[in-house]
């Protein structure tokens, strides 16, 4: 027995989903008739000004982004959870797929009405923002790639897409701004809604001092060199 063996009580498992906790968004995209579709989603991360989103290829959102590569990421907090949950099991597609129909999904052409949310005009993109969310990130699609496709498979057959988007405008409610700074968010005040597996959670208080936080946030604006 090695000295570390007693630490390894892990068992190998095969979960159907690997949703270990990510923030929930309402993603706005433009329908063909110019109205805005809203999709609850949570497969997302940000690096610099870029966002990478995992989106079902057969969703109304995927069709909309192909036609009009503009979006808004409306970040949900726990106060928005009832609205988000009302949009679960809905799709903007009139031809609900057999898988979704069996799971209980229904067609909802007006997601703002279904959720009881209020649209706001955006500044740099066509889809509307969601007034009730504290953070709106307007963005344009830069690249879309198939996700999870196997070697030899046709890209067009991919069930999921990785959508890379560049943020073009950031709106925040003054309630979450860091006092004394024009362009900062106070992480003690911003509380994202988190999806863990299929359930909703909030975020607790900070759990440990952060060495990373010793880097002044504005340094992330500096261009990176190779060295
Ligand atoms: C909280 C939550 C998170 C979700 N996350 C994602 C996701 O990250 N990617 C995805 O493709 N679908 C996700 N879904 C499912 C979509 O909302 C669903 O496919 C929806 O029908 C898409 O809407 P649309 O067809 O109108 O675009 C999520 C649903 C909920 C309720």
Automatic annotation (TrEMBL):
Q: Which domain of life is it from?
A: Bacteria
Identify the residues that the record assigns to the Flavin reductase like domain, covering every copy.
Answer: 20-177
Q: Which keywords belong to this entry?
A: Flavoprotein
Q: Which InterPro entries match?
A: Flavin_Rdtase-like_dom (IPR002563), Flavoredoxin (IPR052174), Split_barrel_FMN-bd (IPR012349)
- Record-linked Gene3D superfamilies: Electron Transport, Fmn-binding Protein, Chain A
The protein's required cofactors: FMN
Which PANTHER family does this UniProt record tie to the protein?
FLAVOREDOXIN, FLAVOREDOXIN-RELATED-RELATED
**Protein family according to the UniProt entry:** Belongs to the flavoredoxin family.
User: What is the protein named?
Assistant: Flavin reductase family protein
Native organism: Isoptericola peretonis
